[in-house]
Amino acid sequence: MNNPTDNQLLELSLELAQSVSSKQRFDGLLTAVRKFITCDAIVLLVLKGDYLQPLALQGLRRGTMGRQFVIAEHPRFLAVCQSMQAVRFEADSDLPDPYDGLVLATDGDLPIHACMGIPLYFEQQLIGVLTLDSLTPEVFDSLSQRTLALIASMASISLHTALALDLLEANIKHSKEVMRVLNEPGNLGQQSNLVGQSAAMEKLKGEIALVAPSNYSILIQGESGTGKELVAHSIHQQSTRSDEAIIHVNCAALPENLIESELFGHAKGAFTGAAQKRAGKFLIANGGTIFLDEVGELPLAVQSKLLRVLQSNEIQPLGYDSTVHVDVRVIAATNRDLKTEVEQGHFRADLYHRLNVYPVTVPPLREREGDIALLVGFFNERIKRKLGVNQLKVSSELMARLEHYFWPGNVRELEHLLSRAALKACAKVSMQDRHRQIVTLEISDCDELAPEGTEEHAKASRELALTEQISTEQSINLRDAVDDYQKALIKQTLHHYQGNWSQAAKHLGVDRANLMRLSKRLGIRIEKVVW
User: Fold this and answer.
1) Which helix (H) or strand (E) holds 526?
2) Distance CA 326, CA 360 (A)
3) For residues 36 and 15, what is the distance between their CA atoms, to the nearest angstrom?
4) Are 275 and 268 in contact (CB under 8 A)?
5) What string of DSSP letters covers 447-498?
6) Contact 504, 490 (CB under 8 A)
7) How many CB atoms are closer than 10 A to CB 48?
8) CA-based R_g, the chain, Å
9) For 197-223, what is the mean pLDDT?
10) 364 to each of 406, 408, 501, 524, how far by Cα in Å?
11) Which of the 8 DSSP states describes residue 358?
12) Nearest to 366 by CA among 403, 399, 336, 394
């Protein structure tokens, strides 16, 4: 291969300078480099702490964009990050390649190939990596260090400029990295960012960026498993309160007789069992944000006291005669239709309007076209580290099935399905081989997606039954119909598990306290109760 001429390198520099947005700049960088260096795959990755995150790629599966490559787990990335100049690996290098199974030009393990990594530095600080792979061995050997150094310099400037512009925009929107977050009892684990590039997710991110800097109360609505808690944390991180804590309260999990104490605190001896003074969640969150998850489960008596906090910014702990001023932003979430709950008398109208200053709706996974591949890559990267697997990939047949599945449980269901499928797939491979082979998830590893058991089939059956019901009845009360269905399903599940509420709740995918509260409202009584 001939080295690029000075005129060609000047042309590369001009092309990069003409790119405005970060995405254009990144894609333009890869396209420009490929004009002068022939390769089958090229990736631009940004350094984020101890891992590398792809910003743009060509020649790799799209799901790779959702991955986070922990540097210490990938010897080739480690070698590049520890070098000050381009690293060309031997064609027959025995170091595992992080892109095994991900290159579009080949299916399975990468054969003997050319691999090169270029560290990108700005002011002596590593900010990213540019990787190039070719199925033609030794194709990069003729490139001079001068050429590679110039490409690295231009790529570094381009990357730094884009990152600086992104940081400036983030500061304008009052978005800062959260420094101290208290999560009680929620634990987001490693996922704290919203993964997705669909139109629905871009709209959601735009709404978050719009409302986050304000001090409005926010009501997050969406189906179970869509990621409402992640949205709440994203709003907090982009707010002017990001340096303070966000306190998580699962309203459905709190015993009814302790909800008021948990939220507003109590004095010593305020009630039986109150052995000492305790601060409530609102006082702990003072100056920051409180996230009321499943707010629709709060009893009416507590709703009135929550309304007082929103109106006057004051709380009155149990056992106290005086009130305490608090400065707390309230973010609430629910999978219920609170407007209907208000009409049915189950939720206070005045509280609903106080919480619903700015409603945010999280789209269900079935409406996020194109995001499943990114989520699969994101979750597979986490799962493979937990299971100690060299590489996890999804077969094209399974990916097609995933993209056409209805996903009633949304993102949470996808994550759990991939976790189960990975366990089944890994069981077919010896422990020793898992560290060096690619484990591929197939349709046979996902019983839930078998053709005869697809959600589309079940959904069609439900719609047919509903159509028959509508055609034979004068009118239908939607609320009563939903209650009857829930009541029958809960009773059948409890009967199957012999009255074991925990097992029934797990089977139905809900919190046990939430299930018991719902059952109480529906008038379900089970004689044999197993805790």
Assistant:
1) none
2) 25
3) 13
4) yes
5) GGG-GGG-HHHHHHHHHHHHHHHHHH-S---HHHHHHHHHHHHHHHHHHHTT
6) yes
7) 10
8) 27
9) 93
10) 10, 8, 28, 30
11) E
12) 403
Query: β-strand 289-293 against 246-250: which pairing, if any?
Result: parallel
Q: DSSP class of residue 293? A: E
DSSP designation for 74: -
Separation between Cα atoms, residue 320 and residue 266, nearest integer Å: 7
Phi, psi of 402 (to 5 degrees): -60, -40
- Phi, then psi, of 123 in degrees rounded to 5: 50, 50
Residue 291 in this model has a pLDDT that exceeds 90: yes
Residue 183 pLDDT class (50, 70, 90 cuts): very low
Q: Hunting for tokens 């922990």 — which residue is that?
A: 70
Nearest to 376 by CA among 408, 359, 355, 398: 398
And the tokens for 150? 């110039």
Q: Which residues contact 528 (CB under 8 A, 6 or more apart)?
A: 498, 499
Q: How confident is the model at residue 455 (pLDDT cuts 50, 70, 90)?
A: very low
What pLDDT does 8 receive?
Answer: 57
Give the residue from 364, 445, 434 showing the smallest Cα distance to 397.
Answer: 445
Judged by DSSP in three states, 264 sits in helix
Q: How far out from the chain centre does Cα 185 lie?
A: 18
Backbone angles phi, psi at 175, to 5 degrees: -105, 120
pLDDT > 80? residue 18: no
What DSSP state is assigned to residue 302? H
| Nearest Cα residue to 332 out of 255, 456, 232 | 232
Neighbours of 386 (CB within 10 A): 9
Name, of 21-30, 465-474, 503-512, the range with top average pLDDT: 503-512
Q: What is the pTM of this model?
A: 0.64
pLDDT at 190 over 50: no
**SS3 assignment, position 41:** strand
Tokens 């990468």 belong to which residue?
A: 110
Q: Give the containing element (helix H, strand E) for 324.
A: strand 324-325
Question: What type of residue is 354?
Answer: R
Cα 237 from chain centroid? 15
Continuous segment of H or E residues that includes residue 292: strand 289-293
* 361 φ, ψ (degrees, to nearest 5): -110, 125
Bridge partners (DSSP) of residue 44 are 56, 130
- Nearest one of 135, 120, 253 to 184, comparing CA atoms: 253
Comparing C-alpha atoms, which of 201, 199, 192 is closest to residue 230? Answer: 192
Residue whose entry in the numeric block shows the structure tokens 């589309």: 456
